[in-house]
Each structure stands twice: as C-alpha cells, then as structure tokens.
Amino acid sequence: MDIVYIRELEVETVIGIYDWEREIRQRVNLDLEMGTDIRQAANTEDVENTLNYKTVSDRLIDFISQSEFLLVETMAEQIAELVKEEFSVKWLRLRLGKPGAVPAAQDVGVIIERGERW
Ligand SMILES: Nc1nc2c(c(=O)[nH]1)N=C([C@H](O)[C@@H](O)CO)CN2
C-alpha cells in the first residue's frame, strides 16, 4: 500500500461546545494519510491516475469552512466518511487538531484510523 498525504492543512471554522465558541471562527489543522497505489500514476505521469491531493485539499477546505460541529470527534468522523466515499479511499489516518483550545498546550485533538490496510 502506498500513501498520498496532506500535512498541516489549516482551515477556519465554527467549532466548540461553549456558547462563545458558536460566535467565532477558530483554526483547525489536519494531517491526512490516504492509502492508494501510486504505480499507475508513476508509469504514466498522469494526475488522472492518482489521488489528487490538491482536489482533496480543496474539498476539505470547502467542507470544514462551512461546517459548524460541536466536537472535533464529530468533525474527524465526517471528514473520514467524506474522503472514503467521495475519493474511494479504503484506508486513512487523520489527525485533527484545534490548536487554540487549551492555552497551555501547543495543540489538542484526535487521531483516527479508518478502513483496512492492504
Ligand atoms: N475530546 C474533546 N474534548 C473537548 C472538546 C472536543 O471537541 N473534544 N471540545 C472542548 C471545547 O470546545 C474546547 O475546545 C474549548 O476550549 C473541550 N474538550
């Protein structure tokens, strides 16, 4: 299994459980690893034959910036579902961080892995 990845994608969104958090936009960031097979793209040098990280990034920026989740857990699950369904990804690992949430911490969030490696 090969991996196409996106690192430190940053998006502003409405997220959080407290009333004040529903009134502002906060930054989230994510790392995403997507299982794939890169050999056909490598042999043809055709981006149509691979998982296009630009297309995935643009879709996630659009989805996250329009969302209004309460928990990072919910956002992470919804991102995983979107990537699996819309981009036919069978395995992924996602780290979703909310760096402003705990002032004493550099970052907090969740890491999830979904699907089967092969
Ligand atoms: N496991 C989680 N813990 C907390 C979350 C969350 O989404 N998942 N959210 C909050 C608040 O919204 C927090 O980010 C505000 O500082 C607290 N704990």
Automatic annotation (TrEMBL):
Protein name: 7,8-dihydroneopterin aldolase
Source species of the chain: Neptuniibacter caesariensis
Keywords, sorted A to Z: Folate biosynthesis, Isomerase, Lyase
The protein's annotated pathway: Cofactor biosynthesis; tetrahydrofolate biosynthesis; 2-amino-4-hydroxy-6-hydroxymethyl-7,8-dihydropteridine diphosphate from 7,8-dihydroneopterin triphosphate: step 3/4
InterPro entries: Dihydroneopterin_aldolase, FolB_dom, GTP-CH-I_C/QueF
Keyword Isomerase set for record: yes
GO biological process, one term: folic acid biosynthetic process
CDD domains documented for this protein: DHNA_DHNTPE
Taxonomic lineage of the native organism: Bacteria, Pseudomonadati, Pseudomonadota, Gammaproteobacteria, Oceanospirillales
Enzyme class, spelled out: lyase
Sequence similarity: Belongs to the DHNA family.
Gene Ontology cellular component list: cytoplasm
Domain Dihydroneopterin aldolase/epimerase: residue ranges: 4-114
GO-annotated molecular function: dihydroneopterin aldolase activity; isomerase activity
Pfam families linked to this entry: FolB
EC number(s) per entry: 4.1.2.25
Catalytic activity from the UniProt record: 7,8-dihydroneopterin = 7,8-dihydromonapterin; 7,8-dihydroneopterin = 6-hydroxymethyl-7,8-dihydropterin + glycolaldehyde
Protein task: Catalyzes the conversion of 7,8-dihydroneopterin to 6-hydroxymethyl-7,8-dihydropterin.
